Every structure is written in C-alpha cells, then in structure tokens.
C-alpha cells in the first residue's frame, strides 16, 4: 500500500497454519499444533502478537479442515466471558479477550496442503498488489528482540522481498533453506535496530541465490532462512508457475530464488536481515520443551519460583 505522499506502507501479515503437525502426534490428532500451549498461551498467539506489534493489523491465517480450534480461539466466547464477569475474574477475562482484539483477523482454507509456497499463494486475493509479511508458527521470536520492523523498513526502502537469516553450525545447514549473499547496497540498513540494539551494516545483505536444504558440502554459506519474510506481490506471479520441488511441494524458497536472480526488475530482488536475538524453535518435541522452559524461566510472575525449582531438579539428576 502507498500513502498519500507516495511512501510504501506494509500492513498485512499472512500466517500459514494448515500443516498436519505429524511430529507431535498423537497430541495433534485432534488439537492443531499451533494450539499447543507454550507456558499458558498457544503458540499461534505469540505469532499474531508479533505481527500486531510490528504494525501489521490485518492478519490472514491460512487454515485447513482440521484447524477449526484456531479460528475459534480468535473469536469471542460470550458464555465464558459472562461467567468470568460474574465471578469478578478480570484477569482471566482480559486474557481471553486479548487474542480477539490483537488485529483484524481473517481466515482462508488451503484445502490440500501442497507446501509453503502454495499456502502463500492462497493469500493472493486477500493481499492484492501489496507487500506483506509471512510468519511461520514454528519460530517464536522473543518480543524483546523484534526483527519484523527492520525487515519491513528494508522492504520499503528497496521495493524487494526480505527474509530473516540465522547463522547456524555448518553441519546443521541441511535442515534449512540456505542463502548465498553479498553486501547490500549502501544505506540499505542505515539506522535500523533489532529491539534496542542497532543493526550492523553487515547484518543486512543482498541475497544472490537460495538453496532448499542443501547437502553440507554444497551449502553456499551457513546462513539459514528462518520463518519470517516480507514479500513483494510479484512473488505470486512466480509461485503461479513454480513447479513442485523438494518433497513434491511448491517451495517458497524456489520462488524467492527466482526473484533474487533478477534484482533489477521491479518488485524483484531479495534481501536478508541476520537475526541475532532470542528465538524459540517449537518445530519438534525437544525444541518445544526447551522453548517452554526458556519462556517460563523469563516470566515475571513465574520465573523466580520456576528457576529455583529447576536448579534443584537439575542438581538431583547428577
């Protein structure tokens, strides 16, 4: 979207939640993985909060036929609200109303899951000819280290797409999409911050190529793509003709690689912002447990007591 002085503003976020969550079976047989609690909130609420905190107040969730609970979570529950009001339980009442008030939330069903690229393509009619953000629910970004505002600023300055990158050990790069990068044009990252810390000029890069889950020996770097994107609307045109790739799915990485290959074309060009903050991976069981422990230990209301118990528990394991 462009304001009345010709400056591009980004207001829409897309959050794909149609995956089957097979890594968390049997819990996800009836409960969407996005609704699994991380301390006392479902993972999806953290993600919507992040989008809203970055000024993205129009949020589209790409759902599937087993995700009705996600849709219900962002709706009012009059009977429960009335019961809490009668009890005078204002704290719990506020907690269940908060998700409803975070943003203007919309839903569209993906149908048969055909990969992240296809999920993004399902947002085309809602997004229109505007830049938009994509947030994946497996990556929770600590609210103290927001990366989306910097990514949005880079997209507004360049007119291209922006991906979040994370340095990972070389032996783990085969688990991620991987970026080949070079220095970004001068001024691209000037004055940007991540949380309260300024971003180094070397932390904003131009993406030359992308490879989905490369073998270690073939990886062009140790910079992995994590689940935050700000995309130009030209990505839809590319996704329309992107053939199924790895795993028989339409890969967003393949479409971004095409946009990166022709940076001079309007709406093309891909840039990266290297994330150096706190991130919690809820993508598998062990990392999910680590995320719960880390977030609980940092809570003002739970942290002190939980840390005391944790020290004693760990000491007893030796």
From TrEMBL:
InterPro entries this protein is in?
GalU_uridylyltTrfase_bac/arc, NTP_transferase_dom, Nucleotide-diphossugar_trans
Q: Which UniProt keywords apply?
A: Nucleotidyltransferase, Transferase
CDD domains, alphabetically? UGPase_prokaryotic (cd02541)
Instruction: Report the EC code(s) recorded for this entry.
Output: 2.7.7.9
UniProt family annotation: Belongs to the UDPGP type 2 family.
Its name, as the record gives it, is UTP--glucose-1-phosphate uridylyltransferase
The Nucleotidyl transferase domain is annotated at: 12-295
* Gene Ontology molecular functions: UTP:glucose-1-phosphate uridylyltransferase activity
Q: Which residues cross the membrane?
A: none
């Amino acid at each position: 979207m462009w304001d009345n002085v010709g400056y591009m503003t980004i207001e829409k976020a897309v959050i794909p939640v149609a995956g089957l969550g097979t890594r968390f079976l049997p819990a996800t047989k009836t409960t969407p993985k996005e609704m699994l609690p991380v301390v006392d909130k479902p993972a999806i609420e953290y993600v919507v909060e992040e989008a809203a905190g970055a000024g993205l107040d129009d949020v589209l969730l790409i759902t599937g036929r087993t995700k009705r609970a996600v849709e219900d979570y962002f709706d009012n529950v009059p009977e429960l609200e009335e019961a809490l009001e009668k009890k005078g339980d204002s704290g719990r009442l506020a907690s269940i109303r908060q998700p409803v008030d975070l943003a203007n939330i919309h839903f569209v069903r993906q149908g048969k899951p055909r990969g992240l690229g296809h999920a993004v393509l399902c947002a085309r009619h809602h997004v229109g000819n505007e830049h938009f953000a994509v947030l994946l629910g497996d990556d929770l970004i600590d609210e103290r280290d927001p990366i989306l505002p910097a990514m949005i600023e880079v997209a507004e300055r360049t007119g291209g797409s922006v991906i979040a990158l994370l340095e990972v050990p070389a032996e783990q790069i085969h688990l991620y999409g991987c970026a080949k990068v070079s220095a970004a044009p001068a001024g691209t990252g000037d004055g940007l911050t991540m949380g309260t810390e300024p971003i180094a000029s070397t932390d904003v890069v131009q993406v030359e190529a992308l490879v989905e889950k490369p073998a270690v020996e073939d990886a062009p770097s140790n910079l992995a793509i994590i689940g935050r994107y700000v995309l130009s609307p030209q990505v839809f045109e590319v996704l329309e003709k992107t053939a199924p790739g790895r795993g028989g799915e339409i890969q967003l990485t393949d479409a971004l690689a095409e946009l990166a290959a022709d940076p001079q074309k309007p709406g093309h060009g891909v840039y990266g912002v290297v994330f150096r903050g706190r991130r919690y991976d809820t993508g598998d069981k062990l990392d999910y447990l680590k995320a719960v422990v880390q977030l609980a230990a940092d809570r003002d209301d739970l942290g002190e007591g939980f840390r005391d118990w944790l020290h004693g528990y760990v000491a007893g394991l030796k």
